[in-house]
Structure of Sugar ABC transporter permease:
Amino acid sequence: MSKSISAAAASSSHNLIGRKPPFARMTRRLLLYAVSIFFIFGPLSSLILWSLAEKWFWPHPFPSAWGFKYWHQVFEGKMLSSLGLSFAIAITVTLLCLVLTVPLSYLIARNRLPFKHVILLLFLLPQAFPQLPVFTNAMVFLYRFDLVGTLTGLTLIHLVGAIVFSVWTLVSVFQSVAESMEEASYMLGGGKVYTFFHVVLPMAAPGIIASSLLVFLYSLDEFTGSLLIGAPFHITMPVFMYNAANGYEMQVASVTSVLLMVPGIILLFFLQRFMRSEYLAAFGRV
């Protein structure tokens, strides 16, 4: 009895020694949060500083004059037309991707197609190589049809990368929809078309929304293809920002970056709500 009491006391004292005081744990957590915030928001804070800096001379760590002069300059210039063009192309590409890839992804997910993994791999090929040579070859191809410098060509070059995100995401979404629900619909007399529109699509709706958000964000931020195919006739927001930075207009480029960042942050918040773990678990499964 005395041995067991002494053993319990020794174990208790050992646990107390091994347990760190609350102040040390709290300090460690605060340090981890501070380091994480620094690495995440450090580069972004530089953009905000530059967007509000009217005068900033080396080696001063902060601007000597603050204001919204360059914000007014950006809104009075051609930025709004570039912003509108970027949103219009992103919406068009998202809708086209939905029309093209929803039925295609459902067929890939539900049917035992020969060489299915090869078909999915083909969609990844444009992303497996550096973007510049891929888009340069696409530009040579589009020149043959006189599509360079046109809105049609700009939309097509955005589709090259957007379809990859859409197909791979939607295939995993449809694979996560239980086939037993479709079989139940068939047993109750529902046809394939009725089952697809009334059973499959409602169950896959969150994944379709998540895929659409990914495609929209990709198209909104796409730069290389927009520069090669659209410029100088159609200037999207990323190209507008590049031109400003290339001309050493750091304040204008920073204001443009902040404006381009806002819809991305908002849509990523919605993406987190619609992207489910089962979609990620089925991602890449054939």
Notes: Residues 32 and 143 are 52 Å apart (CA to CA). The mean pLDDT is 83.
